[in-house]
Amino acid sequence: MLNKRIIGKRIDLDDLHYEIEQLKAALMGVYDFIILFEKIYEDAGHHSTIRSLANLGRCAASNIADKLEFNLRQLERRKGDYLKSAATPNTGGAT
Question: What is the per-residue pLDDT across 74-84, written as a single tens digit (0 to 9) for each?
Answer without folding.
Answer: 999 988 888 88
